[in-house]
Amino acid sequence: MDSSDPLSPSPSVRSWRTAFLTLRDETLTSPPPSNVVHLLQNLILSQSNDLIKVSADLAPHEVTSDLLFLMDLAQSISISDACNIVDTYMQLSHLVYTVSNFVHLKISHSCSPLVLDFLSSTVEILFNKTKTDKAFISDAAIVTSTKQCLEIAKRLFNVSERATMLLENKQLLDFTLNVVVHFQPQLHDSLYSSDKILSRNASVWEVQIVAFSMIGDVYSRVGSCLPVDVWESTIGVVRSSLDLLASKGTLVEDNVMAMFYTSLLNCLHFVLEDPKGPLSGHVDGFVAALRMFLHYGISIKPNSAYPVVDHNISGYKKQSFSEPMKPYRPPHLRNKNFKKHNQMDDESHSSSERHNFLTGYQSSSDSENSDSDGLGKDSCYVRYAKTRLAAILCIQDLCRADPKSFTTQWINLLPSNDVLQPRRYAATLMSCLLFDPYMKARIASASTIRAMLDAPSCVFLQVAEFKESPRSVAFTTLSSSLGHILMQLHTGILYLIKNETHSGLLISLFKIQMLLASCTPYLRMPPELLPTIISSIQSRVEEGFSFRSDQNILLAAAINCLSVALSSSAFSTPVKDMLFAEVTKGFVSRKSGVLSILFQYSEPETSPSISFEALQALKNVTHSHPSVMVLCWEKVSSLTYQYLSASVDTQTRTWRDNTPGEKAIAAAIKVLDQCLRAASGFKGTEDLFSDKSLENPFMSDYVKTKTISSAPAYEMQGYVTTKDRAESLSGSEQWLELIDRHMPFILEHASVMVRAASVTCFAGITSSVWFYMPKAKQDFIISSLISFAVTDDAPLVRSAACRAIGVIACFPQIFESAEIFEKLIYAAEHNSHDTLVPVRITASWAIANICDTLCHYVDVNGFDQHSSVCRAAGMRCHQSASLPVQSNHVALCLRYKGGGACFTISDCF
């Protein structure tokens, strides 16, 4: 063929093909390994530089086929004792590595075992050669070859470009873990060498960086599919690496070492995301090592003078937070006029040094896309920050993976004193949340604390008890330690709520405070703690939020946090006194207290999300402190009237709609319901199982009396005391206001939520209030309930009506009319055949109550067959009892409430 022909290969291409064709021909006869080594050296490796240059001119599939042939041929010489076997493998791996930089090699799944076997053999031969060589780390060629083998595997098995098989992933992990295990003894010697030697051996750490990055990539992609034994072996290798670092006790602040730490911790993060086995044996070791990274790269000068903060909650309450805070500057504007800003900062540095330190350097970026996060252009500090972030995420993974075992680490990860003081050698999650200059690390710390408080195992916090103890005490009980930890958490979180300017972190802080309020046993804590929490959140709400885009979200979160704190204050006398003091002032100022704030944000003009949270908070106040909210009846009634009257002109939706506006109206009616119950003398709940305080196994020191005064109410056969009479008359007035003022809007309301919430109010009426209610109003209530139970299209409304019927049917006055009594039984019996189980349950509960009350009536007054009430009721009960039970739920209600009453009455006929 003419060399001038454009289709003819170039001389360099012909040299590639000639070399590989010759090698194929020479090895057809299966020569001994020593001859194969000689052929490889003469035909391929001696001209490897020229072959590398020409590889880009060849077709990728041709280059891939020839390299696979080399790898297969190398396997036949792996057992050779040739003196240059190590050099041959090093040169082959270098050839494959360099060619892969120029040519995109495509390895099929069928060829992947060959590639991994070649790489594993290469690394094994290198390690076997150096087993007796004490200067292993100083042999840069071997370390470089090992790194190149890892790079080859990483490049050929790129997770983003190929769908790997499970077997392939297992082989890749085995190869990578083998590299890590072989390097660990050498890393131990390197860690305990001088910093000069350590920096010279940067390539050793780079091998580990690539290895752990590859392990993390595999687990991030197919971690859920890997078998248990592979996961356990990975955990063991990572644990041994972390133990090695922990054994030295200090971390090296170096660019390369920071990259190694980050790759190791990111690998652990991916491995822990989907745990496949128990971690109880590893939690202590992991946490001990991870704590070392919490302040990695943060220099805290020991001689810096920071003012001492009073950590008593009373001292915290009086603390001034008037220091000016730096305004937020976007990342792209921070370097402008840098010198001018520095001069201004230097002038005010002495006055605001502590404030800026505690608020996490307010120059931190709000942008999730800014890696520097306000730390400037120094890449080393950025790597330190990412290392801290990775360690915090690993702690969070451990908490989620094994929350029960993780409870033993609370004392190690959370402070028990001086939470607002920066301490370099006492790193905790709270110190990261307070002092870390990297915003993402602070947010991760907040998420980790939330995970710890939100875990099911945090019920052990109920044993916490705060006791002032001298620092000289050598032993502290677990309950006392937990009490001090909870106290420090409250102090730190409230400080940040007051001063934080990052909207995302502030939302997390409110969520942490909500969890704290839910799991803290305030009866065992200082009495002033809960009022301080409420006052602090109230002050933050009054101060407002400067973030226009997140203002409603932050305000709703703050009010929700306030709601949870108020719901935890049922047994707090200081909170009750605080609310009473505000009410007795008559709400002179719209911002004079907690209740004023809640009523202000509960108005219909407020955003639905905010008004709903405020109404929920008012409901919690009514439930926790009913005697306080009774004094606010006029405001509650007026507020509910505003919602109902404003919705008259907008009722164009069907009953299936569920808009935020309807949600707020229903919430307002529920507040009205709670006030009616409080005014009527309703004590306790209709269902004891709805009382969360009964779930607390550590409430033995407080005895709570539960009185179900709504039904059944046999005490009305006797006389009524003067106190009960006055209370009943007061409750009757408010019920009359409900009927006259609000019911006209409710009866024809289009919203199912509103109608159901309104009908539920009647389930809270007491027998004493009913006794003093005019006959016309009694008839109105009964007729409305029967209409809702029989004719309403919404199951939720029918269920609420049956619930109210089950209460009112127990009042003695019902027996005065056989017609009304029969209609009540019919309404309940009609819904007992409903297709929905919740409706049948409520209806069956009402029937059981009716039967139980009728039984009691017969026991007291005797059974008169000529009585219209007895005959009508008996026939209805007999029919209901003879019907087949449609579900286990119905049978349970009949047994629980009826006590066989249906069958007792039917025996009379």
Helix-residue proportion: 55-70%
Broad structural category: mainly alpha
Cα gyration radius (Å): 38 Å
What is the 3D shape?
elongated
Unreliable spans are 300-325, 330-377, 652-658, 684-726, 889-909
Strand coverage percent: under 5%
**What does the main sheet amount to?**
none
Total number of strands: 0
DSSP helical segment count? 41
Straight-line N-to-C gap: 118 Å
- Mean of pLDDT: 78
Biased composition (Basic residues): 329-341
Pfam families: DUF4042
Biased composition (Basic and acidic residues): 342-356
Region (Disordered): 318-374
Explain how this protein is built.
The chain is an all-alpha fold and 909 residues long. Among the domains are: 8-106; 132-276; 278-295 and 309-329 and 350-526, no CATH class; 774-909. Helices cover 63% and strands 0% of the residues. The chain contains 41 helices and no strands. It is elongated, with a radius of gyration of 38 Å. The N and C termini lie far apart (118 Å). Residues 300-325, 330-377, 652-658, 684-726 and 889-909 have low confidence and may be disordered.
